[in-house]
# Entry
Amino acid sequence: MKIRILTFDTIDSTNTEALRHARDGAEEGLCIVARSQTAGRGRYGRKWVSEKDAGLYFSMVLRPKIDVGFLPLITLMAGVAAFEALSDLGVKADIKWVNDLLADEKKIAGILAETTETRFGLAVVVGIGINIRSSNVPPELAAAATSIEDVLQGAAPEPTRKIETIELAEALAEKLARFCHVLENDRGPETIVDEWARRSSYFVGKQVRVVLESETIEGVTDGLEPNGALRLLRSDGGRSIVQTGEVQNLRRIT
Ligand code: BT5
# Structure
């Protein structure tokens, strides 16, 4: 896939812009990066804080050649790619099912994958927000969120190298392209689940509370289904399978 990056100073949402391009026929590999977003969003219409030059606001158009049943794995695949991009900068992350990356148990990045039908077939836009500087973590999120610079400064006594947004965007795009190809291989879905499992402490044995639209479930994680859904051993002794699209909130409990 040919990677092409379009950069903007300010934009509503890089996902919205990438969806527009996808509908206009953009090829896969097109990436949108903005220095700030005025309407950066998470799932369920939640806001994504997007201060100028304080984070990476990135979206990539994909046209994955996979069975629609495996589309939820795109979010997991993106988690693996983002984990690797952070790792290359010295940040040891954890992937929290389904779309969060944590460092020091706080959210450092979030993923929002959206699909759209186009004249050229289905397109998926993978949006990733990564906090680079602590100025992207407002006081009300301080207990729950962190940034690359916070994590690196906490780990090393020396001042850390300034993280360049565009370099991070290029590295992330390259990893997304690589893992997207992996997903398209014959045993791609299994491989992506394995890659995810190796990088996530949430794969098995994590005590969690999961908020769905109509109920809240508590239990222990027990692996993933082939499509990325989460298996849970519920506290009441039963079993549940939570699909990637139905979870509003998942929290570790101890
Ligand atoms: C997400 O949603 O985590 C997906 C975030 C995706 C953002 C990227 S930025 C580039 C692209 N363009 C977009 O418009 N979006 C994507 P969700 O799981 O719903 O989490 C949202 C919640 O995370 C909020 O309700 C806050 O509690 C918290 N939050 C908001 N901004 C944050 C930030 N900068 N860092 C950490 N947590 C944040």
Remarks:
- The CA atoms of residues 153 and 159 lie 7 Å apart.
- The longest strand covers residues 106-118.
- The two ends are 43 Å apart (CA to CA).
- The mean pLDDT is 96.
